[in-house]
Predict the structure of DNA-3-methyladenine glycosylase II.
Amino acid sequence: MKAVRERVGDPLAWTRPPTFATLVRIILEQQVSLASAKVTFDRLKAACGGVINAKRIAGLSDADLRRCGLSRQKARYVTLLADDVRRREFSVTGLATMADDGVRQSITARMGLGNWTADIFLLMALRRDDILPVGDLALVKGIQELDPSVGSTLEAICERAEIWRPYRSAATKMIWTLYLFNRNR
């Protein structure tokens, strides 16, 4: 990591507030570019009157969500998440007091939200120290660029990252920064 830092400088902040809006943004970032997700998020924010929360999402129709750029699936995931929050079956603020495994379990119990979503929320919003989002393509490619001998299997990635424990979140941010640096972004 020292060599990476010397090459690319300090890692990007990669932090977000631990809010409902952040969880929605992470949903929008699933399997698309960050730039594309940001455009959709900004449109959704405008449709919500500048504040994305469960009540305002519930006030939007499927057609409204689709006009913002959400796919049919993501519109469903965001709507169901808002419903869970409104019914008090899920508390975004409550996640801060849970252990990592509890956060993962609570997030992945929601439709369309998997381990990647939970890991990104743990890393960026809750700022936990030892998160390795192995489902993140930029992380996997970045690790392979850092160390070409690493395979692409989950086991190979986890084994290579073991040396960074208990600070795998910091290593992840460095690798993401390296990944963007290598692409002139």
